[in-house]
Write a structure and sequence with these properties.
4-stranded antiparallel β-sheet, 3-stranded antiparallel β-sheet, alpha+beta, MetI-like fold, 526 residues
């Protein structure tokens, strides 16, 4: 018999391709093992909607943490009631036509005169009363940014029509002049600051006489009749001044016996330091004197005068961090509870399920309300809200974990581990739980938008009060704007956009995780 070993080495030149000269394939076949999480990451990256949602979530979180660091002039507790409910204002963005602090509005003739009078009065430093309309319109303190036109309106038949002016007004400059009570020492400090900066803060007081329409309004520095029309007095008779080019308003300043305007009024106090002076200030400059910077609010101010950008950042951090904490705690409690139920089954499962049935039928709103009424006074509103979410929030995670354990505990690899002497704890956490992790993580991710929505709802309804100088939530911002949003839409717009994006994006992100961790799709090409 011939030895077969001599056929084991055959020269290469004895082999040839059947289709010589034709390329069969350039594809290189590889068979490398891919880990579970790497495979999940590959499938998650193929879900474009989830990727976009994750990017948007990261952008929102970046805004929440970077905005307070970028705004160096003030913090979230800074408040100015005179600049409450103001639209966005930023000097850099205003150069390209946005965030100029302005809104479009219709004015009557008396209203447009009052508005332009702010700029005219700001230019009248010495109380001479000779500033023209054109000089006032050129003032940097002029609130009227643009007069877009006028129209005649007749509301009642037989009554002469009145003129309505459509204009864009700068809301921060519109505040104009205010009466303030300050110590005498501060009065002299303002005088020194005026000399150093060249910015006028103190202006003449207004006389309280028959030509004063409203003694409490510091912007009515000019003489008016009982209807609010500006007038010029000649020989004791008042003549109405028409709003037109070259208009000069007659001042109604308080003057001393020498005819000089009066800049302060003593209202009480004992000595040089404590004596109180009543003064009339141009608030835009007084704001700079007090704070050292001009009013700059990227998203405007809220209903109380806080910077809406910083309040929105605080609201995002509170809502998202609360949701993540609730999700993490529910994940831990639910995973442990469901693992014990599913692994041991029988009487243990029966007893634990009855406990779940009792807790699942407790209304969450009732729990949250009771916790806020009785527990919040001791531990605070946020911890009590966290307890309310955790009390019953882990039930859905426990149910999913229990289902997964019933599914996997009878598999061959589990029986093999038990045969080799593995303890129950090792079998639970080393053999069964990792196979259930994908479903549990997905469920936990989908808890986050639900918590954000519920927290916003409770805050909006006033059940949870998270509206202080240092703490706020997205729901509280919406609640504060609910009654005034038609006049100040930015107060409702920005929080509503953020909540909507968070809800949509976290749901899309959770759907991507669900598909990525789905064991049935492992290794499937899409």
């Amino acid at each position: 018999m011939k030895n077969t070993t001599e056929f084991t080495h055959i020269p290469k030149d004895m082999f040839e391709f059947v289709n010589h000269g034709e390329r069969i394939s350039d594809k290189k076949f590889e068979d490398k093992p891919i880990g579970y999480f790497k495979d999940a990451w590959i499938r998650f990256c193929k879900n474009k909607a989830s990727i976009v949602a994750a990017v948007i979530i990261l952008c929102i979180l970046a805004f929440a943490f970077i905005a307070p660091l970028a705004i160096t002039t003030h913090n979230a507790t800074f408040m100015d009631t005179y600049y409450s409910r103001k639209p966005p204002r930023n000097e850099l963005l205003s150069n390209i036509g946005i965030a100029d602090g302005g809104t479009n509005r219709d004015f009557s003739e008396q209203g447009i005169v009052k508005a332009v009078a702010v700029g005219m009065g700001a230019e009248d430093h010495d109380g001479s009363g000779t500033v023209t309309l054109e000089e006032g319109m050129a003032s940097e303190y002029q609130p009227i940014l643009d007069i877009m036109g006028s129209r005649e309106v007749s509301e009642i038949r037989g009554v002469p029509p009145r003129t309505i002016y459509s204009a864009r007004i700068e809301n921060y400059l519109e505040v104009g002049f205010l009466y303030l009570s300050i110590p005498q020492s501060q009065y002299y400090q303002i005088l020194e600051w005026q000399e150093e900066t060249g910015l006028q803060v103190l202006y003449p007081l207004i006389a309280n006489n028959e030509y004063t329409m409203d003694a409490a309004d510091a912007n009515y520095w000019y003489k008016m009749d009982s209807r609010g029309n500006p007038v010029r007095t000649t020989a004791g008779e008042a003549e109405v001044i028409e709003y037109a080019e070259g208009m000069v308003l007659e001042d109604n300043y308080r003057r001393d016996e020498n005819g000089n305007p009066v800049y302060y009024e003593y209202t009480g106090g004992g000595n040089h330091e404590t004596a109180q002076f009543r003064v009339r200030v141009l608030y835009y400059n007084y704001y700079q004197y007090r704070n050292g910077f001009t009013p700059q609010y990227l998203l405007g101010t809220d209903s109380q005068g806080y910077d809406l950008t910083l309040r929105l950042a605080d609201g995002i951090k509170l809502s998202v961090l609360l949701a993540i904490c609730v999700s993490a705690i529910n994940l831990v409690i639910g995973a442990i509870y469901g693992a014990v139920e599913g692994y041991y089954g029988g009487a243990v499962d029966m007893v634990m399920e009855r406990i779940v049935d009792v807790l699942a039928n407790v209304p969450f709103v009732v729990v949250a309300t009771l916790f806020q009424m009785h527990l919040a006074t001791r531990v605070g509103a946020i911890p009590s809200l966290l307890f309310a979410f955790v009390l019953t929030g882990w039930i859905s995670t426990a149910a999913r974990t229990r289902t997964q354990f019933y599914r996997f505990k009878g598999q061959e690899y589990v029986l093999a581990a038990r045969t080799l002497g593995a303890r129950d704890r090792r079998i639970i956490w080393k053999h069964i739980f990792p196979n259930s992790l994908g479903t549990i993580i997905t469920a936990s991710a989908l808890v986050i938008p639900g918590v954000i929505n519920t927290e916003s709802m409770l805050s909006y309804l006033g059940i949870v009060k998270l509206n202080t100088s240092s703490v706020t939530s997205l729901g509280n911002l919406l609640a504060s704007a609910s009654s005034i949003w038609t006049s100040y839409p930015h107060l409702m717009l920005f929080p509503a956009i953020v909540i909507s994006l968070l809800m949509i994006c976290f749901n899309l992100f959770g759907n991507g995780l669900r598909d990525a961790f789905n064991p049935s799709l492992r290794g499937v090409e899409e």
